Known about the structure:
Blueprint: H1 22-35, E1 37-39, H2 47-62, E2 67-71, H3 80-90, E3 96-100, E4 105-109, H4 114-124, H5 132-144, H6 151-182
Parallel strand pairs: 1-2, 2-3
Antiparallel strand pairs: 3-4
Helix pairs in contact: 2-5, 4-5
Organism: Nocardia panacis
Pfam families: Rv1476 (PF20381)
Keywords: Membrane, Transmembrane, Transmembrane helix
Amino acid sequence: xxxxxxxxxxxxxxxxxxxxxxxxxxxxxxxxxxxxxxxxxxxxxxxxxxxxxxxxxxxxxxxxxxxxxxxxxxxxxxxxxxxxxxxxxxxxxxxxxxxxxxxxxxxxxxxxxxxxxxxxxxxxxxxxxxxxxxxxxxxxxxxxxxxxxxxxxxxxxxxxxxxxxxxxxxxxxxxxxxxxxxx
Length: 183
């Protein structure tokens, strides 16, 4: 009997957080179009938080990161629903979209690598409810930090070392061949 493992490789359908429906998406789109910040209803936040988030998004834009920030209540299950929401919003709001919940973050960007986004997500996670401004600032700070390693330089150094090793082995082999032919 042949066992089929195709179900293991079938991607999961995109799932939006439970607090987000089509009308909420329309509201989020409108809010992001105005000042690049959207807060889903159900979050107890004062106007200061929204202004602080808008300031963080504006500061990121001044530094070349086209950022939009969305805050959702609770920690929706599965965590990947935050990335799905960011991807859905990123289709109409180009640049980088970060969706923050109480402890998690989901991102989408058409300009930044997934590696950079994941590192910035890690900095923004586990800030707990009511700390969305702190999480957004940690996200932006992490994105603005230069990479610890220049991957282009590292790749070039590895290639140079590889070519030197191959050249060295060729030289040793040619020298050995000359010595054997001399004997």
